[in-house]
Amino acid sequence: MTFALHLARLVKERQPLVYMDEASFNMWMRNNRTWTRPDCSVKWVFPKFRGAGVTLFGAVSQYIHNPVFMKAKSTNRNDMLKFLPLVRRQFVDSDQWVYLVLDNHRCHHTKEVTDLARSLRFELMFLPPYCPELNSIEALWGILKRMVKKQLVANRQVTLSQEQFEAVLQRCVDSVTPEQ
User: Fold this and answer.
1) Which residues pair with 19 in a beta bridge?
2) Does a structural domain hold residue 32?
3) Overall domain count for the chain
4) How far apart are CA 14 and CA 105, in angstroms?
5) DSSP state of 149
6) pTM above the 0.90 mark?
7) Residue 77's pLDDT band (boundaries 50, 70, 90)?
8) Could you give the CA distance from residue 144 to residue 126 in angstroms, rounded to a whole number?
């Protein structure tokens, strides 16, 4: 059975599905193109210090009230091991198996992660290559990145400190609410 058919069957049977992924954010996410007249070109100036990127782990599901987010410095095994229990806590019934849809990042396939997932009663469902459209959280990442860009542009500062950037990111993450 193909992945898409298996996913459709789980949705039809109302099995608990969680869509999980990571996304990177950085303070230079502003648009770097603009339309101008040829005689009035705009040159973008990027500061020497561009700040550290921030990785957000995220999980969404119709079976949990709010999306689950965790900030990290990168996508690695240790952060994945911290994130899985955060997702599991969203389910009252700890004996219930939950299907976790995720991509094929290296850290998702480590023995420690797969063992922890099994002990937490997660069934890992790895997406086929180049099929992000089957992972619902991808749409949320697009919305969140647009929100962050809009906030960075509205800030009107040429340079930001790392703390200012992370505050902008946190405000955007805090504004994500489930659809009513």
Assistant:
1) 60, 101
2) no
3) 1
4) 27
5) H
6) no
7) very high
8) 23
